[in-house]
Amino acid sequence: MTDKANYFNINKETWNKKVATHAQSAMYDLEAFKSGQNSLMSYELNALGDVTGKSMLHLQCHFGQDTLSWSRLGAKTLGIDFSDKAIALAKQLNEELSLDADFFCCNVLDTSKHVSKKFDIVFTSYGVIGWLPNLKPWAQMIAERLKPGGIFYMVEFHPILWMFDYSNGTPEMKYHYNQKEVIYEEYKGTYADQNSEMISKEYGWNHGLSEVINALVTSGLKIEYLNEYDESPYNIFPNLIKTQSGMYKIKNQLHPSIFEVKATQS
């Protein structure tokens, strides 16, 4: 087994364990979601607008709340994730809520091996690219899965945030912005429930903005925009304060928290 295959397997084990914890967490608030609450945030809703009747491929969808939220808004969605337990719960929710989303379990980099359809939209969000060692095959797969004129949209935590080690509660700058070497972390809990007893074992990679943009451009996509924002919709980093908009930021913040990219297939 190669090192990367081993990294993926260990990450998959951790994400399989996270499913039960996250499904019970206040952050994911599954009961409110079942009652009709939309899990999508303002960044992606504003960027993609009316998705009625559009086909959408959702990459790294976890247990499908966002995939199902897009389905509720009228899109025909397919969610992809490498966690079999996450996909099982996503399918269960789809059936329970009488929606028509589809889900498939595979490593996101292998999507084109299993999915031949082309989509109007490819979407991915929040904590996704850090699990990938190389963004070129990821971007190539995205280009393969888009129809001519199709849209790729991603919203993601800013790479500056991943330069810090948060294990001691106080952020400590430790990793290079464009670090090529794999980063291993082992800690108790998860971002959705820091008091959980589960042990997270994770391998990840840092990707600067230039790597993201160049991978997409090299794949043939046309970049429509790159935006950076100070405010995050998720309270998952230490010492964040809630803003008037209901989002979160660091007190006296000196760097962005979120970036978004929109691109089109020629």
TrEMBL record:
Gene3D superfamilies: Vaccinia Virus protein VP39
GO BP terms: methylation
Pfam family, one: Methyltransf_12
Taxonomy, superkingdom: Bacteria
Family matches, as InterPro entries: Methyltransf_12, SAM-dependent_MTases_sf
Entry keyword Transferase: yes
Domain called Methyltransferase type: residue spans: 57-152
GO molecular function: methyltransferase activity
Keyword annotations from UniProtKB, A to Z: Methyltransferase, Transferase
Name assigned to this protein: Class I SAM-dependent methyltransferase
Organism of derivation: Winogradskyella pelagia
